[in-house]
């Protein structure tokens, strides 16, 4: 029992140290920023336990959500339904699913090194448009290191995570896909939990919290320094290194408003699968899209007469009358923001203007 007691104490000590990037950050400038920072750490803890303890066996994978309405990482997309599964290059897998009507559905294998160097290298990508479907919309995909006939998603020796991205533009009218995963060559039953396996899993959780918070704090600080009230991060290498979707062109920025100010953002619309825009807090969590309008997209926004789109970021007007295509700051004054072009042939840089309201 003493070994278990020491294991728990060590985990708690490492957990405390893992929060230093957030607790010691100079980005926080308000009580709201600080409170959300502590909440952010608790959310990363939940995700870390899901990832490295509850769903950590690559021989018996299951899908879980690393980003959703109450757990958010790296400018999570409010239009997305994310599903993750722990995998390994030592196994081969079978994904079964039903297509649904979600506009964008993609599968990717990654080498997750967030806890080491903040990277998540792509080791295989597959778009649903390249998948052969049955007449009823069902499909099967083999995930393996060796190429297979039919629907195949590549896997590498160091692959450790599989990500399914479903992107909606009008959730009320679109049906999500359903997916399951299994290892083809798994034993009959998983091994029972042991002190050694528990220790290994718990050790990875603080490393995940520290590594994840560090990389996205670096991003936020960079955007604040170089992209204040602009959306012009045209170099995509940093985003792809961190596991970004290869279909998406990311335009990040930092928004900051004084009382009575707003951002007016205008862009032409290229030929594309879709686009969206969102605002986040300083920790790069999307703001509360359950209760506020903090994002818009190609289906939700109203276009201007000339085919362009104008989005306005502002606090709730005192008269309660929002402008067209408004984005609600939800009591925040600053944070990061992101415009995504998905499957676009061109990538216009939106014009961002600071205006008085």
Please provide a written account of the structure.
The chain folds into three domains: 1-57 and 191-226, no CATH class; 58-186, Jelly Rolls, CATH 2.60.120; 229-356, Jelly Rolls, CATH 2.60.120.600. The chain has helices at residues 2-18, 20-23, 31-54, 195-226, 237-241; strands at residues 80-86, 93-98, 104-113, 119-127, 138-144, 152-154, 161-167, 178-183, 248-256, 261-267, 274-279, 295-297, 309-314, 326-328, 334-342, 351-356. The strands form four sheets. Strands 1-7-3-4 form a four-stranded antiparallel β-sheet, with no helix packed on it. Strands 6-5-2-8 form a four-stranded mixed β-sheet, with no helix packed on it. The chain is globular. The mean pLDDT is 96. The protein is built from five helices and 16 strands. The chain is an alpha+beta fold and 357 residues long. Helices cover 23% and strands 29% of the residues. A hairpin with a 5-residue loop joins strand 3 (104-113) and strand 4 (119-127).
Rg, nearest Å:
21 Å
The CATH architecture of the largest domain comes to: Sandwich
Overall spatial form: globular
Average per-residue pLDDT, rounded, comes to: 96
Beta-strand segment tally: 16
Q: What fraction of the residues are assigned to beta strands by DSSP?
A: 25-35%
Uncertain spans, ≥5 residues at pLDDT below 50?
none
Instruction: Count the DSSP helices.
Output: 5
Count of distinct structural domains? 3
CATH class of the largest domain: Mainly Beta
How many strands, which pairing sense, and closed or not: the largest β-sheet? 4 strands, antiparallel
Specify the helix fraction band. 10-25%
Order of helices and strands: HHHEEEEEEEEHHEEEEEEEE
